[in-house]
Write a structure and sequence with these properties.
The protein starts with a helix and ends in a 17-residue tail after the last helix. It is α+β, with helices and mostly antiparallel strands. It is built from 5 helices and 15 strands. It is 25% helix and 27% strand. Strands 4, 7, 8, 9, 10, 11, 12 and 13 form an 8-stranded antiparallel beta sheet that branches. A 3-stranded antiparallel beta sheet has the order 1-5-6.
């Protein structure tokens, strides 16, 4: 199954490149027509989010207290998940924890590195949907856990506190850079790995194969870090949250 997925991803990458032969590109058009999804007729908004086909006005509900304090409204439209035109899904943490973990640019400022956070609510603002996000709290200065990944600046992993910030902040979909994976390292500490996507230098095609490679590399380095920490701090081996119904710590 994995080999079939990789072959299909490579084929989609090839036919999407501008230097692909015209004859092969015609085959792509035929394949797109043959396997066209019913959702392709839906038009994305300015942020690239595909709006759901809902007849009439969406039903507004009473918003939770913390969301009311964030947006200054008592009632609004909430969503469990939304889909981006690139095929990426975003969900609130209570619905799907993995799809709620995002790296985003604070206030859209791309001059600063993105920060990790978890989507607690997805609410409608006009024709757009915004995320109410809780940031992943950094390690406290009093914490005895050190970040072993700081010695590897080119590997996108870092140790954070397992707690989230209490305050919410609004995040637009265009501010999101990627999803991230989260593993429980110690009680009170987690490893955050950015699942950044790779773009071809000659096109805007995005492939999800990078996520698979990043996961395989992470598992390999995880064993190394696990061994290093076990020598310094005796502990019970942590459990990875992926594949668990309850999600991460």
């Amino acid at each position: 199954m994995l080999h079939s997925y990789l072959k299909g991803a490579k084929l989609r990458a090839w036919v999407s490149r501008p230097d692909c032969p015209a004859a092969i590109r015609e085959c792509k058009i035929l394949l797109d027509r043959a396997y066209q999804s019913q959702e392709t007729s839906e038009k994305p908004n300015a942020d690239g989010i595909i709006l759901p086909n809902v007849t009439g006005n969406p039903r507004a509900t009473v918003l939770p207290d913390d969301l009311q304090q964030l947006i200054g409204q008592c009632r609004g439209v909430l969503r469990a998940n939304v889909k981006h035109s690139a095929g990426v899904f975003y969900s609130r943490s209570s619905m799907h924890l993995g799809n709620s973990l995002i790296f985003f640019y604070s206030r859209g400022n791309r001059s600063l590195p993105p920060v990790p956070g978890s989507i607690k609510y997805i609410y409608q603002d006009g024709e757009s949907f915004l995320f109410a996000v809780q940031r992943q709290r950094p390690l406290s200065e009093k914490s005895k856990v050190t970040d072993a990944f700081s010695a590897y600046p080119h590997f996108p992993a870092k140790v954070y506190s397992s707690d989230l910030e209490d305050t919410l902040e609004s995040v637009q979909c265009s501010w999101v850079s990627s999803h991230y994976a989260r593993w429980a390292l110690f009680p009170g500490a987690v490893v955050v790995l950015s699942l950044c996507k790779v773009r071809f230098s000659t096109s805007l095609f995005v492939t999800d194969v990078t996520r698979i490679y990043a996961g395989l590399i992470f598992v390999f380095l995880w064993d190394i870090v696990h061994l290093a920490y076990s020598v310094i701090y005796p502990f019970t081996p942590p459990q990875c949250c992926l594949g668990r119904p309850g999600g991460c710590a």
